[in-house]
Design a protein that fits this description.
alpha/beta; Rossmann fold; 2 domains; 30% helix
Length: 271
Amino acid sequence: MNKLQKVITAIKDIIKQPSLLNLIVERNESWEQKINSKHPVYKKGLPILPITSILGNEINISPYAFLDGGSLPTDLGLLKSLAQQNEITTYFEIGTWRGESIANVAPYLDNCMTLNLSNNELKEMGLSQDYIDMHRYYSKNTANIKHLEGNSLDYDFNSLNTKFDLIFIDGDHHYSGVKNDTQKVFDHLIHENTIVVWHDYAFNPEHVRAEVFLGILDGIPPKKRKNLYHISNTLCAVYFPNLDNSIPKFEMNYPQTPTRNFEVNIKIKEQ
């Protein structure tokens, strides 16, 4: 089949099933093109900070499920290291899932809040009861964790009447969801020293998830984009309002030559 025949076949398939057009529009390359057009300075992604500039030589991650939809150990290590800084006492996150992230930071903080869709909203989306019951698995019944229910698209963040020291955005990963959550956080929940972390800025530590990245760029106030970084060996983008400019940075290139090794010890605890 030549190229013209392939094009004709593709058009026929799209006419029969219009939803196939989404596969073209939502391809990562399409989002990359939008970034290159709107934000050409970021066509190679964010400047990368070495993970060693944030994490110490050793950090314990617990709980950790090694199951679908979770974070990398290094993602949770990043959050946990930030939470242990002396000036960090309050934490807010969008997207609870099993509660691994907030359960890892809660022991070091005074006040933690996590926002997720209610069980009823999840049920209305057609999700199974088993899936719904898995939410908050690790974070429920923890004294300093408050579980909020609602959709971040219309949630009244002003009602919290709180500015947070550390914020983790890990909710809807579509462009519109990321842009909304980013705007809401910067409009209502930050103070001058707040650190903001976005999960799934990258598909893996070497490939940017362009749809999420564009949502971040379009959601954050333009003057604050210069404070955005990718942390190496993680899926996370971070907003640092007061970063030490002496920390070395580098660009994302594939494949990366490992510059550090990690030692992983697995200890299994029965529930």
